[in-house]
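Suppose you are handed only two things: the residues of a chain and a line of SMILES describing pyridoxal-5'-phosphate. What would the bound structure be? This form records exactly that question and the answer produced for it, so the two can be stored side by side and reused later without any lookup.

QUESTION INPUTS
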Amino acid sequence: MKKAVGMEQTHPLFRQVYEFILNRIERGEWRAHDKLPSIRLLADETKVHRLTVFKAYRALAEHGKVYVKDKSGYYVSPDSLLPLDTGEGTVVSSYQLTNPLSDIQRIPAKYQFSQALIDPNLLPNLFLSDYVKKVFDLYPKVMGTYSSVQGDEELRETLSQHFRQHHRLQLSAMELLITSGAQQAINLVARILLGPMDTVLVERPTYSVAMDIFRREGARLIPVEITAQGYDLEKVETLMRKHKPRMFYMNPTHHNPTGYSVPARQRKLLVELAERYRCMLVEDDPFRDMYFAEEPPTPLFAYDTEGWVIYISSFSKYVAPGLRICAVACRFPFMERLITAKSLADNGTPLLNQKIFLHYYTSPRLQQHLGKLRTALQVHKEIMEEELAAAGWEWTAPQGGLNLWVKLPSTLSVEVLFRKSMEQSIAFVPGEILDPLGEMKSWIRLSYSFASEAVLREGMQRLTALSRTL
Ligand SMILES: Cc1ncc(COP(=O)(O)O)c(C=O)c1O
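ANSWER OUTPUT
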């Protein structure tokens, strides 16, 4: 039989048949209540003994994925796509092509709290045009040239120096790749690392688009709870030992949506676990520079000497979202594979964007802008918090980032609130979208960074007033 990628040595034969069948159910080849192939047929097709197929069907029936009808055979259970509790971590089914966050964000809203983006009025748009002019003077042929696939060398040199000086990352320009946003970086990493049925650890809750990308590759998600204290490392170790995940996708600094930061002592231990269990840590870090009082702990990448951390540092949020510049740091030989994946995706991020970014990024104006932006974001956060406090809703005040993760009273249905608030042009993200298990139904994510102060205040007052009527 054709073995699932990465399963060859670690799974007994009946388990491979189990996953072969489940894989096809999850891809939608067989739907709820469809009759499945007979044991004899499947044994012939997969070239294994009939008893092995019988054992696989029996395990699928035990896990509620299929059901038996007397004398007639096996059928797909209507619950086959529900999360499966393995006793040592819940595994969520794969192969879905969805992006519910984007579906919400595409709906126009006057009170926009669903977008973790910064109000364009808080960005230095006027100054940016000076840098555009400068770039055309310095590089008259910039529009007539492709970038190298890995990214402009001058930019990579500058960023590697920046990472060395500011974040203690030992990096050369060769160990950086420029992508079009963090989202492209996550896509490329997923393409390289994941095959059907591979497992991925993801935080619970997490950035839903990353989950959608992993599901599209056919990977299975295993949730790891994130709290204000970080992760339960014993649990992480158990999950790594038991499920042998290909990677742990994490956003450990001003985490989206909770705002939590994983403490420094856990970061070093996580890298040790990654080395021991050969699990890549994909550290997505787009909110690092958006802190209120203190700088966050050093990236996990700083502790990695053996190449188990891929560090994704997007500047798309706060420097110039229109340029979509992001840097990915990783060691060879993974970098080689990443460059090939990038060449297949778009053959290099536009050179013009990289050069404009470079000149703005290295200017003193950026530092002035950052200081002001942090203050402005804190003011936005406090406005939202004042309105939440007045409504009696619960949240943990974050030390940075763009979102509040809010728990609503259990008497309030988020589903109803969402529908009614959309009617009043108020947008937010229901928590269940950000939960790999699709639960967290009393939680919502509210982004305070996109609406202006006045719109933020008014929208929050409308939202909380609306909730009182429900
Ligand atoms: C955790 C996280 N990663 C990645 C992204 C996407 O970033 P980019 O705009 O650089 O593609 C976001 C956007 O909200 C995010 O919250």
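WHAT STANDS OUT: DSSP finds 15 helices and 17 strands in the chain. The two ends are 56 Å apart (CA to CA).
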